[in-house]
Amino acid sequence: MKIRYIYLLISAALLSTAVSCKKSLDESNINPNASENAQPDYLLTAAIKANADTYWGTANNLGASLLFVQHIAKIQYTDPDRYIFTNASFSDLWSVGYAKGIINLNQIIKLADAASNPNYKGVALVLRSWIFTTLTDQYGDIPYTQAGNIDEYLLPKYDAQRDVYLGILADLKTAQDALDPSGKAIAGDIIYANSIASWKKFANSLRLRVALRIADREPELARQTIAAVAAEGTGYISANSETAQLAYKASPNQNPISNLFDTRPDEYRVSKTLIDQLTALNDPRLAIYAQKAVATQTYTGAANGLSANLPGKDQVSKLGTYFIAPTAPAVIISYAEVLFDRAEAAARGLSGENAATLYSQAVEASLTQYGVSTADITAYKASAAVQYNSANYKKSIGDQKWIALYGQGLEAWTEWRRLDYPQLSPAVAGALNGAIPVRYIYPGTEQSLNPNGYKAAVAHQGADALTTKLWFDVN
């Protein structure tokens, strides 16, 4: 008994020492100048900035989707323009979207509920819905219902793309109901300067975007969504001044494309596909989207996917100075896009609006967005090649929307996959046997870190390949 008593004393002393050491370590790791509790305004700013940078930056925009949709071409290191990638190539969108987007926004929602501030919750849900839409648009099946909750789901399941879109629509409806311009104020909003009324329009505009994502598969659900937006009454983004975008500032907070061109000015040029189309239409945006080639002083595009006989850097057009300026905005959803979406909804019979009128307004909104003169707008819209064709609304809307979405690679690529216009030819020396990529492959880390989720997604969706069509892409 005496030996046992001594053993218990020693054990208690060791336990006390361990607890004391842990307490000391905990205290020594506290930053006395930082808050121990996450603040929703800081989390909101961080989530917006990180995800806008990723959405607009090199890995997902210049180095992938803008090449696929042939807004941009590469004249150096052309593997990406030939569709040659590894399973590490598309990890940036995934890692930032979840780690610096979904997790932070989930935390804002928890803090908002605890502080009884539904406006923070509504804004976080809108942003989270945008990020989830961007993720599923590119990869297909993704972690959704269990995402961003590491304490409970270390290895989250992958949800089918259909379920993700429907969940996003439900979240946006919840956000719309929560957002109240007369309610508690928020801070940290670097998109709309804390204007809740603007976020309500943003929410509805995203609902319309997602409704059209599902329209070929679930037309009745799309119609119900659009009818619900109309009944809610807030409306959509209704002016260029209401476009959802992050306005960048001078270095070091400059646009990521501008940052890239500061150090690598001769890797990218405007695609021949785009310049040829703008030239054929006598489109006044040509001088905004591109610069004249130095050697010829003409607008000359570079062919996509060359492996040899690459043009000299002075023989082809650089991106327009607007897009490589430090302060060029990262557009999330523009007024022009919303009008094109409304036109398509009307053409599909999903609303009672006039498709031709909305299409004309969309074209004008895009031109106005870049400061085109009234006279040039009138002349352009009068062109027979620009007139709305009700017999083939996908071509009219698809062609003009592709032009209007210049610079927004992920959105332009998604709309091309959905509408099948414009009709693009694959890269000259493309590596996909005459095909253009129609999805991102999953990050290689998913195969090792979440193998069961990854395998289930591949079994449900199809091969983890650039050529596997996603659920929304029916044609």
TrEMBL record:
Keywords: Signal
Highest taxon of source: Bacteria
TM stretches of this protein: none
Position of the signal peptide: 1-21
InterPro entries: SusD-like_2, TPR-like_helical_dom_sf
Entry protein name: Starch-binding associating with outer membrane
Organism: Pedobacter westerhofensis
Classification of source organism: Bacteria, Pseudomonadati, Bacteroidota, Sphingobacteriia, Sphingobacteriales
